[in-house]
């Protein structure tokens, strides 16, 4: 198994580009796990411009398959007094595979203080909890999951997840890698397994410095609509203290 910290350290720099080799155990079918690809894009974005403010939003399009040797090219789109926009493209043998726009924003003085975000509906797994690790050769082998068998709606997931190797990871990069680890919520509506593929993902960070304990993040996904081979789902991520740290939306293609 090649953990995310080791994979990031293996980056090869060439001008404004970074080169990575995606191992087989980070694949999901014929393409790399979307959370990994997103993290690689963020790694390049952080290198593209010095002293960026905190990451507050990521807009990601999963354009095509990525496997093996990939190149990430990032460019600063605009940098204002408080906000910076950085775009990053991942390309492989099949061409463009991912395009991401990252929004970095410094804290601003504001008279508004509003927080109606719900606390996590589940407690962090105990130290003796039974954990699930995915099979070798599939991206889930890089994670540990805990599912308390909660009663859920037909198109809903709620699961604790953490990277098995996470030492010295930038917290937003860790959050991007973990945040896409659930199957699409529409998967639970299928009478039998069918291929699904994420199309777009927008993630908004609710704090400038996301953090958790023991690597645990509670992931939630709920599909509001699934029809004509397309699903739209809402997503939330809480830390181990039950604090909501990110909200997201994702569109998904359903084949069959």
From TrEMBL:
SUPFAM superfamilies on file: Thioesterase/thiol ester dehydrase-isomerase
Domain Acyl-CoA thioesterase-like N-terminal HotDog: 22-105
Signal peptide coordinates: none
Span of domain Acyl-CoA thioesterase-like C-terminal: 133-253
Pfam families membership: 4HBT_3 (PF13622), 4HBT_3C (PF20789)
Protein name in the entry: Thioesterase family protein
């Amino acid at each position: 198994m090649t953990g995310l910290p080791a994979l990031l350290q293996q980056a090869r720099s060439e001008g404004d580009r970074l080169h990575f080799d995606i191992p087989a155990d980070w694949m999901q079918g014929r393409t790399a796990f979307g959370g990994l690809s997103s993290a690689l894009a963020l790694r390049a974005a952080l290198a593209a411009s010095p002293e960026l403010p905190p990451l507050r939003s990521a807009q990601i399009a999963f354009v095509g398959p990525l496997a093996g040797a990939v190149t990430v090219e990032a460019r600063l789109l605009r940098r204002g007094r408080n906000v910076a926009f950085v775009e990053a493209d991942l390309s492989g043998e099949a061409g463009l595979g991912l395009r991401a726009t990252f929004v970095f924003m410094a804290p601003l003085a504001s008279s508004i203080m509003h927080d109606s975000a719900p606390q996590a509906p589940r407690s962090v797994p105990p130290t003796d909890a039974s954990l699930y690790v995915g099979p070798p050769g599939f991206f889930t082998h890089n994670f540990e999951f805990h599912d308390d068998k909660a009663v859920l709606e037909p198109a809903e997931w709620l699961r604790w997840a953490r990277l098995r190797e996470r030492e010295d990871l930038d917290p937003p990069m860790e959050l991007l890698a973990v945040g896409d680890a659930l199957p699409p919520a529409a998967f639970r509506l299928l009478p039998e397994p069918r291929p699904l593929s994420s199309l777009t993902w927008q993630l908004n960070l609710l704090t400038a410095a996301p953090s958790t304990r023991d690597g645990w993040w509670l992931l939630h996904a709920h599909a509001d609509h699934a029809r004509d081979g397309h699903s739209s789902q809402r997503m939330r991520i809480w830390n181990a203290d039950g604090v909501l740290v990110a909200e997201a939306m994702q569109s998904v293609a359903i084949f069959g």
